[in-house]
Here is the input.
Amino acid sequence: MKGLDKGIILVTGATGGIGGAVVRQLLAEGATVLASGRDAEKLDALAKDTGCDTVAFDLTSEDSVRAAIEGRNIYGVVNCGGFGGEIATPMETDIDVFDKVISINARGALLVTKYASREMIRVGQGGVILNVSSQASLVALKGHISYGSSKAALDNITRVSAMELGPHGIRVNSVHPTVVMTPMSAWYWGRPEIEGPFLETMPLGRWATEEEIAAPVVFLLSDGASMISGAALPIDGGFTAV
Here is the structure.
């Protein structure tokens, strides 16, 4: 795809399933990818497997984010780093968990946006920021009070950033995936009493793959999406449309 060779594309949460798929698809399109996460060993394994560059930093630390990003010729960002938190009702929720979810999913993405956009403006070639949100920000999901709230906050960060950064030629969008059935998610979404009713409601009636989430992300980073900014794209098999 055109436009993926204009500078470094930073992918946070790169050692996760969706983040790793984004890294691989970007590299296949000729992009220069800087993969990030907290676990240096996992990043080293990803680098050996794909040939990407890596940088380890902590999304909850402004100093760590600043040190990792300042001075780099960043053109694109994929804010994919996240924390699922807990399954709990508003009556049962652990506020410490809520604070951690917000700190990583919303505050962390804002920190990356803050410092990456400064570098984009310095370079003067525009740029693209893509926030990986969730279907949980678009509709109410039982047990998702913390996670859904964090992603709803991220959605507003997307909209306001699109407005503020547009004059600098920087586009900001979000994607909203449904569940990718990994071992980490199967403990909840794989339960028959949860999975059955959910998939019956979804028009496509199946879970997504990492590759199906990554492909629209890569498109939104490319010049093919050059007039798209402030948009929220569900990748949810039609679940939020019904």
User: Anything to note?
Assistant: Residues 8-234 form a domain with the Rossmann fold fold (CATH 3.40.50.720). The beta strands are 8-11, 32-37, 53-56, 74-79, 127-132, 170-177, 232-235.
